[in-house]
Amino acid sequence: MVGERARHIMESSRREVVNMGRFGLPGRLVRTRPARRLFLLLSLLTVVVGLLAGSASSATSVTIVDLGTLGGTRSYANAVNDSGQVVGESTTAGDASTHAFSWTQAGGMVDLGTLGSTYSAALAVNGSGQVVGYSYIAGNIPRAFSWTQAGGMVDLGTLGSSSSVALAVNGSGQVVGESGTADNVAHAFSWTQAGGMVDLGTLGGSSSYPFAVNGSGQVVGYSFTAGDAQQHAFLWTQAGGMVDLGTLGGSFSSALAVNGSGQVVGGSNPAGDGRHHAFLWTQAGGMVDLGTLGSSTAVAVNGSGQVVGESTTAGDASTHAFSWTQAGGMVDLGTLASSSSAVAVNDAGQIVGYNLTADGTQGRAFSWTQAGGMVDLGTLGGSTSFALAVNGSGQVVGGSTTAAGQTHAVLWQTQVDASPPVVTPHVTGTLGSGGWYVSDVSVSWTVSDPESEVTSTSGCDPSSVTADTAGVSFTCSATSAGGTASASTGTIKRDATNPTVTYAGNAGTYGLVDMVAITCTAADNLSGVASSTCAGASGPAWAFGAGSHTLSATATDNAGNLGSATATFTVTVTPGSLGALTLQFVQSSARYQALSARQQAAVDALARTATQALVQIVPRLNAKQKEAFVCVYKLALNALVRGGWLTQSQANTLVGFAQTL
């Protein structure tokens, strides 16, 4: 729960809603410095002066929504729940009256009415949409109310007098506020549907004032002690009643907020020091001085125990908003003008508040985050704005002057960009094997940042790879409020060229006794040969047989490209080449090798005689005539086989060649 809800009652004194003398509130107004500052700010909302100088961090994007009015010229947003439901007050047509309102994205601004008079104000709303505040009744007397969609506006009654004000409500519907008693003094109260309004009592003095209630029903505020001698912070529970939280050694303390863990924050003066120091109170550790930049007050605490508020700087030169954590201590959040005050913090650590110029004539709402720093939330066209509350989604509410000099309730949707852009490469082409592309490659980029605008890019233009390369890479860098990010395509390898298959040493035409020596080579100059069927041809031509012969081979490179080639050669048969082969076969036999030179010469003559018949085969002869000469050749070969100069296989080979003549 945050303390700014309670501070709204201070603003109501400007409109003379509450009889301060009756409630004993002048002392409250004096002792609660944040409330005095807010009172000053709100009272200046209609002043239109020059624009406030400020440096908003580009790490935070801000969308501002004018919530409008109920027909008049003024509206103020006081609270927002985590569903984005905003509550506050607005003047009606002609500014004749002021009514509490509830605003939602779907339904817009809805008039919640009054309890019968001309004024009501909504100060708080819980997660269920239950709205609390106060409304005049007859005689311009303020009365606490609770409003629900089902039941409308309900008067919560009083503690015995005619006046009451509801300041806060928790998730269970427990309402806290203050009411006059039958003795005409102000007491804190707790109201529930089941139990009605319960007087929380005092610490022995005449009056007590609540500021906040958490989900467990713990109520905090301050009360006068016996004889109204001192003012002490209190914590009230159903089981334990009102407990004095003590002071930091002086005579004053006030509890302004409490979180779900029961951590209480506020301000107190140390012994012998009239200036306030922010404090944190826990059941285990009691009241702890959070220090000061000069003089400080804590006004809100989130679920993690992060405390925010305001502190004067050294020599009380100015007032600065602060954030305090157990790990980091008190941190000065700085200012966009002369002074700043924090009024609320959500569980994400987002802090909101307002800045004031040195002369106190102008204010501007701010949001602060660890990532984005202090950001001016801007206005609706006027010069002044203020923030009062923030929900868990970063929705900030308050008010702003417009260009026409009116004051309207406003909702700021803030988003802190804590992340750089997302840079994604897109590589398009035909992918082969081993990560190689086998076509032209196109490179493009997607640069996106859903949280803020991309302000600059480098290397992000489309590119292409049209030539083979062993490796090239591209990098794109992009900058947004969240920082700079870059991405690379990685290595792009392009090999769109087929491997080569080359045959060498091919004479084309070979006689029977010629040697064939054809080689095959597969090559790829870039990705390399992965596999190949390349094979050459070598050996005596007769071994390949008469006629045409074709060699073919393929090669695949590591990119997956396929290359191929063929080579053709012809083995021709002539009587002369067949005679030479016959002689070669004879001379290669073992029996021939064993003969003397004279004997070999005799066998050579016999072999030549055997081929004489082949010389007679000429193209003009018919098939029968050719066959006759082949038979003569065959008979001669048989004689050589019987003599052991030829094998039968060799003879058959020679006859086969003869038949092709």
Describe this entry's structure for a reader:
With 661 residues, the protein is mainly beta. The chain has 4 domains: 407 residues, Peptidase/esterase 'gauge' domain (Methylamine Dehydrogenase, Chain H); 73 residues, Immunoglobulin-like, CATH 2.60.40; 72 residues, Sandwich (Immunoglobulin-like), CATH 2.60.40; 77 residues, no CATH class. Helix content is 15%, strand content 47%. The protein contains 10 helices and 48 strands. It has a 4-stranded antiparallel sheet, with no helix packed on it. A 4-stranded antiparallel sheet has the order 2-3-4-5, covered by helices on one side. A hairpin with a 3-residue loop joins strand 24 and strand 25. The longest helix is centred in the C-terminal third of the chain and has 20 residues. It is rod-shaped and about 160 Å long.
List keywords for this structure.
4-stranded antiparallel sheet, 15% helix, rod-shaped, 4 domains, Immunoglobulin-like, mainly beta, disordered N terminus, 661 residues, Methylamine Dehydrogenase, Chain H
